[in-house]
Amino acid sequence: MTDITSEDSRKALCNPTTEAVRNSLSRRNRKQVLLQSFGIAAILFAMGMLFILLGSIISSGYHAFTQTHIQLEVYVDPEEIPADGLPRGGFNDVLAAAMAVHFPGIDLADRVAKRELTSILSNGAQFILRDKVVSDPSLIGQTISLSVPASDPYDQLNKGLVERDTPEQFRRIDDAAIARFDRLKELGMVSAPLNTALITNADSRFPELAGLKGALVGSFWALLVCFLISFPLGIGAAIYLEEFAPKNRYSDLIEININNLAAVPSVVFGLLALAVFIGWFGLPRSAPFVGGLTLALMTMPTIIIATRAALKAVPPSIREAALGVGASKHQVVFGHVLPLAMPGILTGTIIGLAQALGETAPLLLIGMNAFITSAATSPFDSATALPTQIFIWADSPERGFVSRTSAAILVLLMFLVTMNAVAIFLRSKFERKW
Amino acid sequence: MFDTPHSAIDERLSDTKIAAKKVQVFYGDTHAIKDVDINIQPRSVTAFIGPSGCGKSTFLRCLNRMNDTIDICRVEGEITIDGEDIYDPKVDPVQLRAKVGMVFQKPNPFPKSIYDNIAYGPRIHGLAKNKAELDEIVSSSLQKAGLWNEAKDRLDEPGTGLSGGQQQRLCIARAIAVNPEVILMDEPCSALDPIATAKVEELIDELRTNYTIVIVTHSMQQAARVSQRTAFFHLGILVEEGLTQDIFTNPQDKRTQDYITGRFG
Amino acid sequence: MAEHTVKAYDDELTALAGRIAEMGGLAESTVNDAVAALMTQDLELARRTIEQDGRLDELLQEIEMRIIELIARRQPMGKDLREVVSAGRIANDLERVGDLAKNVAKRVIAIDSGLTSKKLAIGVEHITELALNQMKRVLDAYTRQDAKAAAEVRENDAEVDAIYTSLFRELLTYMMEDPRNITQCAHLLFCAKNIERIGDHATNIAENVYYMVTGERLEEERPKVDETGVVSN
Asked: What InterPro entries does the entry give (chain C) (predicted)?
């Protein structure tokens, strides 16, 4: 027997098959190279698109991470700001006076000249001063050093986004204004620190004051509500379907419907929420609670599908082992299967939440695109969310919102990347080998 | 000379741990086990042999109602352990499985520590009143499974870190920790190397004095080595059952003869 | 019986059975030659017969090696196991048969004066015929796997024993008739005893064949009474 086999193998070296294989080899290799290059080309294309996307967002967004500030020495004139009537004091006049020090030719009595001078400062500058004095009334009568944001046109000018070569009539600020700003610059009063207002402020009509705090808080509440509802419900549904439900036509039907639900366009969920949560239940519009409910509806199928997949991936040998020593069904599920499936479930949940974080359409429909200038303190306050804030800003005409929109997108992307990173971390950390 | 296995069993009816009468198993429309009658003796090793798909594993899994977990599986006929019908609606499978332990083909320790692997069964059944008792159960189970010397210094290490043979003995220790009367083994050595197999076989032989062991194996040599009685299954039918030495030297049925001598085409 | 899934296993078992058959044939011819040498006082033939026994020893060794190898490699079960084990026993018996034939041949050389009368040896020739017939039949039963034939061979051993008893009496009579016959007759008596032992080995082989085929031992103990003792009274 063995002799025959070895003889066969010796023959194989010079048999017709070898010949045929050799002839077709170069053609086959060519095809393989072709296929590989197609794949590489596709990946390069995708990477290129990603770089263009990120590049355009970053290039227009990075400006928003700094804000032009004007450094002023302000004499808090007790005549303008009486200690007994603080909130209604003439803070604007005080600021104008502080500015006028550097422009001797300007008469503050001339209202037009005064407005032109103070237009360099943000509209919010007087409120910053007011807040400072209100919190510390002893400042009245003293000269304090104050850094206030420049208003949007001057901010743009400082960042070089206003072309000085453009004919005057096509510019938002005239030559005189530019001259005034340049003078301040010469005096070293202009600085461009990190724009912390982008995170610490809520929305505003004025780009230099507008921030994402309201949106971040709104998104946080919405996601919290979404998580608290979709996570237990989703896991519960998945465990029942995977471990306890009989496998028959009805469970098949349910499974198909859950899969379909995951594919339903998000705007439909928004309409549903509008009709049910706001229309029937009378829940408040624009509230993160309703937003969270809506997002939970969307996230639940994702969580159910992810959980079922994770439960399925737990080897049956573990179930058998537990059943074999006399564990009851629920002991098997909660003592062994669920803990082992947890990394997968968490990963799926985080991915689902990340998806919910970026969801815009349903939130628009329930009014989470309202203009709200303070951060929500509970899930029932009106609020915006990150994506809807982007939507609002993208719609705003002020130049400053262009870069802020991109900056907000970057913040959103950063959160998404972070959440995905957490998902990957959880998966690799808790993945059990068996 | 040619007395049937049935008459041989009848003489020993008084000495029966597990008795199956006219057992039928269906998987959906498939008739997987047909009319199986067998009596299994206490404190001995009974081996089930037969070609793949002959129903030996299926029948084994009827003995602790492991088939209950499969929706489409239906069992008919009567199986009694110590005279008690295990398919009686009053019998809870959980209760049954505490009495009839099982060891599986692939070593399947829980991804937990060695200690927790063994303590799991006693814990869920509430067999130990305190930590000291639990420790005692764990150490005695490991000793009975011949794993104590290898495992005593690493009780906190994961059970999955042991070698294949040690894992399988850990699974046996886990099974005996709940103090069962019967231990079912479904091809316990098929994933092990010969040395590990020998250790498990030696263990089976030791356990025989205290437990009724039923083992499914693909290896006829293993059946010959470890069992006192052997049952040959073919196409869902129990073809022949008898003393192991008789089955392997002088089987009465042509199908058994063909199978054990390696003549199945 | 159907073929093994592993064909080489079949080949090995067939080869083993072939070796046994060859050994059986050789044992038969050795006995035949030894007795022929006795009858014709052919010393040359007697010597060749003694040498032939060496060939039987070699065959036995070869068969034992084959059996050990087969058990190690194939782990025979059931019928195969019985076949292999029986082959070993049968080979042993055949080797003993060869030894007994050699003993007869040695006697031929020992009776250097030659037989004074053919008549004395006729009984030995007769028992040899019977014993050889037993051998032939049992070897046939082995190759044909015939348990019934093997059982018959075992029954027929009584006939060989009976012949031996009568031959014993006959030779005793010759010795009493003429004391000069005593040496020759004593030699012949040993030869007859050897041949009778060959019959016993045939019986052993028959029992092994029966076990090999059926898996059962032949039950009742064969009546074996040495009636030679009766005469000496």
From this structure: PhoU, PhoU-like_sf, PhoU_dom
Residue A397 and residue A302 in one domain: yes
Query: Range of A343's domain?
Result: 213-430
A302 in a structural domain: yes
Please list every residue in chain B whose beta carbon sits closer than 8 Å to the beta carbon of residue A327. Answer: 94, 120-121, 124
Which chains are adjacent to chain A, needing at least 3 Cβ pairs under 8 Å?
B
Residue numbers in B near C9 (CB within 8 A): 262
pLDDT in tens, C112-168: 666 777 788 888 999 999 999 999 999 999 999 999 999 999 999 999 999 999 999
Given a contact cutoff of 8 angstroms between Cβ atoms, the answer to whether A268 and A337 are in contact is: no
Instruction: Examine the domain organization and report whether A176 and A233 are in the same domain.
Output: no
- Residue pairs between chains B and C whose CB atoms are closer than 8 Å: 46
**Domain boundaries in chain B?**
5-260
Interface mutation vs chain B, best among A248, A325, A330, A338, most B CBs within 10 Å: A325
Q: What is the ipTM of this complex?
A: 0.87
Three-state secondary structure along chain C? CCCCCCHHHHHHHHHHHHHHHHHHHHHHHHHHHHHHHHHHCCHHHHHHHHHHHHHHHHHHHHHHHHHHHHHHHHCCCHHHHHHHHHHHHHHHHHHHHHHHHHHHHHHHHHCCCCCCCHHHHHHHHHHHHHHHHHHHHHHHHHHHCCHHHHHHHHHHHHHHHHHHHHHHHHHHHHHHHCHHHHHHHHHHHHHHHHHHHHHHHHHHHHHHHHHHHHCCCCCCCCCCCCCHHHHHC
Chain B hits for A317, Cβ within 8 Å: 104, 106, 108
CATH number at residue A328: 1.10.3720.10
Mutate to test the interface with A, among B100, B108, B157 (most CBs of A within 10 A): B108
Distance from CA of B4 to the nearest CA of A (A): 34
Residues A152 and A237 in one domain: no
Residues of chain A contacting residue B109, judged by C-beta atoms under 8 Å apart: 321
- Our CA-based measurement puts residue A251 at a distance from the nearest CA of chain B, in whole angstroms, of 13
What are the domain boundaries of chain C? 7-232
Residue A111: inside a domain, yes or no?
yes
- Tokens representing residue C74 in the block: 């194939």
Is residue A43 situated within a structural domain? no
Co-location of A355 and A412 in the same domain: yes
Q: Which residues of A touch B64 (CB under 8 A)?
A: 324
Class of domain B5-260: alpha beta
For residue A377, the 8-state DSSP code is: S
Q: Is residue A256 part of a domain?
A: yes
CATH code for residues C7-232: 1.20.58.220
State whether residue B164 is helix, strand or coil.
Answer: helix
A185 and A228, same domain (yes or no)? no
Residues A325 and A394 in one domain: yes
pLDDT in tens, chain A (434 residues): 444 555 555 555 568 888 888 888 999 999 999 999 999 999 999 999 999 999 999 998 888 888 899 888 888 888 777 777 666 667 888 888 888 888 887 777 788 888 888 888 888 888 888 888 888 888 888 888 888 898 888 888 888 888 788 888 777 788 888 888 888 888 888 888 888 888 888 888 888 888 899 999 999 999 999 999 999 999 999 999 998 888 888 989 999 999 998 889 989 999 999 999 999 998 898 899 999 999 999 999 999 999 999 999 999 899 999 999 989 989 999 999 999 998 889 989 998 999 999 998 999 988 888 888 888 888 898 889 999 999 999 988 888 888 899 999 999 999 999 999 988 888 888 775 54
Q: Given B64, B106, B175, which is nearest A317 (Cβ)? A: B106
Which of A126, A158, A193 is the C-terminal boundary of a domain? A193
Beta-carbon contacts of residue A150 (< 8 Å; ≥ 6 apart): A67, A68, A69, A70, A120, A121, A122, A158, A190, A208
Q: Please tell me whether residues A258 and A374 are part of one structural domain.
A: yes
